[in-house]
Amino acid sequence: MTTKTAGITLLLWLSALVPAAAQPQSHCSRETLNVTGLPVTVSYCVLSATRSADGRDTIANVQETYSSPRGSFGQTAPLSFLTGDDPSRVIEDVSLARLGMAGTLHLTLIMRAQRVVVEAAILTPGAIVVK
To answer: What is the C-alpha to C-alpha distance for residues 31 and 124, in angstroms, rounded to an integer?
Structure first.
């Protein structure tokens, strides 16, 4: 075993000993939806969250990533959630054209504990329930 290989092995072994609570909590989510027989992976990472001037809304800057076997794209979007509602919901429409697919996903997104996840998804046209 080379010194480099031994070092990597030791690093992997030591990282396994660190308790999960000691590791930083991720503000990202990732899930795969079945859209007309194709997997569409959606990922949301909360980059920052601030309260609006009146304090009623929490504005989350979210890095969104969408991918399918036919394509992928990412974008940063400000999502406005009601402050104090846990979870709070927003609706977002995502055209699937950039994924090489037809239709639009109507997504209900929730934010809980600084994470954004898909609560429900409907594909249009046709109002096909995806989640």
So the answer is: 20
What's the total number of domains in the chain? 1
Residue 116 lies in a domain: yes
| Reduced 3-state DSSP string for 9-72 | HHHHHHHHHCCHHHCCCCCEEEEEEEECCEEEEEEEEEEEEEECCCCCEEEEEEEEEEEECCEE
By residue range, what is the domain housing residue 42?
27-129
Note whether residue 49 is domain-resident: yes
pLDDT in tens, 82-112: 887 777 899 999 999 999 999 999 999 999 8
CB-neighbour burial class of residue 60 (10 A; exposed 0-12, middle 13-18, buried 19+): buried
> For position 4, what pLDDT does the model report?
45
> 41 near 66, Cβ under 8 Å?
yes
Within a domain: 7: no
